[in-house]
Amino acid sequence: MSPNGQTTIAERSVPHLERLPRPLYARNESLTRQTGTPRHSHTWVQLTYAIQGVLHVRTAASSFVAPPQRAIWIPAGLEHEVLSSPNTEMRSLYLDTASTDSPGGNCRVLGVDALTRELIRSFCELPVEYDETGPDGRLAQVLLDRLRTAPEVHLSLPLPSDPRLRTLCAMLQGKPDDDRPLAAWGESLGVSEKTLSRLFLRDTGLTFRAWRQRLRLLGALTPLEQGQRVTDVALLCGYESTSAFIAAFRQQFGATPGEFFRA
């Protein structure tokens, strides 16, 4: 179960487009329920953004999270699935690979400032087949320029390749408040604590403790964005006190929960 207490995820269909009608194409969705897509890929770049709600993109190697004011850049050809929190107002942009000079292969979270946000809002109101040579086309070009220079923010969680670690991580993703130490996990998986520790560093670049803390804090973004009390979220994430949670949150994101969502 995720920190927001949601257990049922409705499947959301993936649009089947043979080609994009324009080099930059927008798709608007209002999602009242928690939803998820099957794993898929596109021949175009996708920018997944929500003006309300929290989005998660999962690939084979990592999980990426985008609360409001952030967006997830998904390269062409990369297999992924997209999950949304309840009551998400989603605005997806599809970019023809010829319209962007950004290198492919790396999924990443981008910061979305006030100007870029309003450009996305305005572009999503245009006709599908907008005039590329007129004002609408110029708006699209300005938006593309803003996306090219958008800063990367570190809101991702690396996922291990070792099957034993994947089992461990999947269990923690389902119950992030599980406080068992690595030695106990090793005992249940039939692996020594030393081996698990070495595998965690090899596969994720993080210690087990650091990985679990990042999992908890990223998972906290959805209930916080939905207005749940910080104290309740801290307990759901496995923290014994609100102050400990806020200190860890500030260390991870450079801001308190209140500051993070006001930014």
TrEMBL record:
Residues 1-38 are annotated as: Disordered. CDD domains: cupin_NimR-like_N (cd06124). The keyword Transcription regulation applies. It holds the Pfam family AraC_binding. Gene3D superfamilies: Homeodomain-like, Jelly Rolls. Residues 1-10, 29-38 have a biased composition (Polar residues). Keywords: Activator, DNA-binding, Transcription, Transcription regulation. Residues 166-263 form the HTH araC/xylS-type domain. PROSITE patterns: HTH_ARAC_FAMILY_1, HTH_ARAC_FAMILY_2. This is Helix-turn-helix transcriptional regulator. It comes from Phytopseudomonas seleniipraecipitans.
